Amino acid sequence: MFSDARTELHDFTATRFPGGQLRDDQDIFNSGYVNSLFAMELVMFIEQRLDSRIPNDELRLDNFRTVEAMLALVDRLTARTEVA
């Protein structure tokens, strides 16, 4: 996992959500504050931090729905990179 991914994800999302920090299990798509542009920003943020592309099979809403889901995605992608 990249350096302190949880903190970085919280910092990235905090500026977009009224009322401050998200809980790790909070569904950002049900919050009403997320649009398709923000979803793409999340993808780009994670790709830049990993210095790697997210494969098409991982581009599913469920992988970006919560901070926990994004951390799990980062773990999977990091493991793939380490094995390759």
| Whole-angstrom Rg | 12 Å
Count of helical stretches? 3
How many beta strands in the DSSP annotation?
A: 0
CATH architecture: Orthogonal Bundle
Q: Which consecutive residue ranges, at least 5 long each, have pLDDT under 50?
A: none
Total tally of structural domains = 1
Estimate the strand proportion. under 5%
N-C termini distance: 16 Å
Write a structural description.
It is globular, with a radius of gyration of 12 Å. It starts with a helix and ends with a helix. The chain is an all-alpha fold and 84 residues long. The longest helix is centred in the C-terminal third of the chain and has 17 residues, at 67-83. It has three helices and no strands. The protein has helices at residues 5-14, 36-50, 67-83. Helix 1 crosses helix 3 (67-83). The protein has one domain: Non-ribosomal Peptide Synthetase Peptidyl Carrier Protein, Chain A (Orthogonal Bundle), CATH 1.10.1200.10. Helix content is 50%, strand content 0%.
